[in-house]
Design a protein that fits this description.
By secondary structure, the chain is α/β, with parallel strands linked by helices. It folds into two domains: 158 residues, Leucine Aminopeptidase, subunit E, domain 1 (3-Layer(aba) Sandwich); 323 residues, Aminopeptidase. It contains 16 helices and 19 strands. It has an eight-stranded mixed beta sheet with strand order 7-8-10-9-13-17-14-15, with helices on both faces. It has a six-stranded mixed beta sheet with strand order 1-6-5-2-4-3. A three-stranded mixed beta sheet has the order 11-12-16. Helix 14 links the parallel strand 14 and strand 15. Helix 5 packs parallel to helix 6. The relative contact order is 0.12.
């Protein structure tokens, strides 16, 4: 998709989009300015359809050689970046009816009411490209479907704003490249998406980026480090485990090392506490945290944040077999803390116990982990929200503020000290499940906190809900893998000094 910025669109596209604020008179003046011969008929239809520019309203004018589509934006005097993304996503939806290769966008309403031209360009790129995403690797082509193949998008914009718009557009493309890679990884079937596949993807990312290195630890290396928690979860599977460690280094020495830790259970059967069929059907998604981390690293080398960033993934399967971890077993993580296995289906937090310990061993002072950790989180917040936990409120506020600008829905939940006793074990330092059915997302967060040193800033994201969309969340988030957290964390890293 080639971006063409012009003060006045010179080459007439096949489809022209006009986002318009809710103002009937302004819309009439707009249509009168088009110069159509039969304006009265168009205005009559405008009145009959009661189109006044309300949010989500659409008015289509089909004329020979050019279709004009008016997109209602509502009464907002200042549209935010999420409005722009949704509107851009709607453009892709409307193009399903056209085989247009060249489209135009008159963004005067956006440009008039928003001073952040760079953010406008970024949001437009994100909405268009995220909405265009499809995972059709294993499907036969649909002969009846109109393929969207936009060659050029012409945007009417003054010359003094072109550079900022282009810069934002380029950033948006890198954000969507990263997000769509994460989506691809989540959408792959578990027979393909093995720990080895994840490790190979990490190698490819490092090979393509000179400022990124990668180290893959095998079983023997993990044994030497004392990663008995990770090894315990893996021991029921025939697939070889892979402990992935990516490192991005900026051009100048960083004051801080930030670690992004992703849960990497490529398939979760539940282990000997085996899941039911319905519960198991989408357990290929249990590696979504790792997909987010790898997606971030796919673009981080080009976006170039100032901090050194480590990406850590303990990748394995959780399978039942004669060698599998048993309920009641006691294992230890690389810090020497013992864990009683109350339930083999609470395996993600067990692998994270070693991943978090490893991140601290490598010098990370700020750690963010992402995991499809609990069904309790989905019950509490629904399918579109991530639960955020943090031991540092300053870090939490920064992350929540950033998420507000990217449109990714995050809600903070507490880590109350009085709940810690719910994870107590009679025979080990801690149990991997609480002694109650209530507050499961919170007790899981408290379990992870036990492996965080006091001098570390840490945030845990339970992405069990929005990791996978059973149905589209909005115009630019289709059914399937979402790539949740990629854009928020990349934006936060770029803002981090």
């Amino acid at each position: 998709m080639n971006l063409v910025l012009q003060a006045k669109i010179e080459q007439m596209p096949q489809v022209m989009f006009y986002p318009v604020l809710e103002d009937n008179q302004a819309i009439i003046r707009l249509i009168e300015g088009f110069g159509y011969e039969d304006q009265s008929a168009i205005l009559t239809r405008l009145k009959a359809e009661k189109f006044v520019g309300k949010k989500s309203q659409v008015f289509v004018i089909n004329e020979p050689g050019l279709s004009v589509i008016l997109l209602g934006t509502g009464q907002s005097k200042k549209l935010d970046s999420e409005d722009w993304r949704v509107l851009a996503g709607n453009i892709i939806a409307y193009l399903q009816k056209y085989s247009a290769k060249n489209i135009g966008l008159i963004a005067s309403q956006w440009l008039k009411n928003n001073s952040n031209i760079e953010l406008l360009g970024q949001s437009l790129a994100e909405g268009l490209n995220l909405a265009s995403y499809e995972f059709v690797k294993y499907k036969k082509p649909d002969k009846n479907k109109i393929n969207i193949n936009i060659e050029n998008i012409f945007v009417e914009i003054n010359s003094d704003k072109k550079n900022k718009f282009q810069k934002g557009w380029d950033t948006g493309l890198l954000m969507t490249e990263a997000t769509n890679l994460a989506r691809d990884l989540v959408n792959e079937p578990a027979g393909v998406m093995t720990p080895t596949f994840l490790a190979d993807t990490a190698r490819q990312i490092a090979k393509a980026n000179p400022n990124i290195s990668v180290k893959i630890l095998d079983k023997e290396a993990c044994q030497k480090l004392g990663m008995n928690a990770f090894l315990g979860v893996d021991q029921g599977s025939d697939q070889p485990l892979q402990f992935i460690h990516l490192i991005y280094k900026p051009a100048h020495k960083s004051k801080d090392i930030i670690a992004l830790v992703g849960k990497g259970i490529t398939f979760d059967s539940g282990g000997l506490n085996i899941k039911t069929g319905d519960s198991m059907s989408q357990m290929k998604v249990d590696m979504a945290g790792s997909a987010t981390v790898l997606g971030i690293f796919a673009s981080i080398g080009k976006l170039k944040p100032k901090s050194e960033v480590h990406g850590i993934v303990a990748a394995c399967e959780n399978m039942p077999s004669g060698t599998a971890l048993k309920p009641g077993d006691v294992i230890s993580n690389m810090q020497g803390k013992t864990i009683e296995i109350g339930n083999t289906d609470a395996e993600g937090r067990v692998t994270l116990a070693d991943s978090l310990a490893y991140a601290q061993k490598k010098g990370a002072k700020t750690i963010i982990d992402l995991a499809t950790l609990t069904g309790a989180c989905v019950i509490a917040l629904g399918p579109e929200y991530t639960a955020l936990f943090a031991n540092d409120q300053g870090l939490a506020k920064d992350l929540l503020k950033t998420a507000g600008s990217t449109g990714e829905k995050i809600w903070q939940l507490p880590l109350p000290d009085e709940y810690k006793e719910l994870n107590k074990s009679n025979i080990a330092d801690i149990n991997n499940i609480p002694n109650t059915r209530y507050g499961g997302a919170i007790t899981a967060g408290l379990f992870l906190q036990e492996f965080i040193n006091q001098d570390i800033k840490w945030s845990h994201w339970d992405i069990a809900g929005p990791a996978y969309a059973e149905k589209p969340f909005n115009s630019y988030t289709p059914q399937g893998g979402v790539g949740f957290g990629v854009r928020t964390l990349l934006t936060w890293l770029l803002a981090n000094k």
